[in-house]
Amino acid sequence: MLSKINALEILAQDEFQKGTVKILRRLTEGHIHSINEFEHLKKALDLLTLQLFEVKNKQKS
Length: 61
What we know:
Blueprint: H1 2-11, H2 15-60
Helix pairs in contact: 1-2
């Protein structure tokens, strides 16, 4: 997606188009950041779940 935005930036001829490309770039970068943060949260939940199972197994023993 960013490569397509880069191509749009090269083709932008006036200030309106250049401004639109900047907005698209910011939105795309924000989405990429959100996806990365979601992956971090998923990993943290997986680790927490694993630790909960370990505690549960220790209580049974």
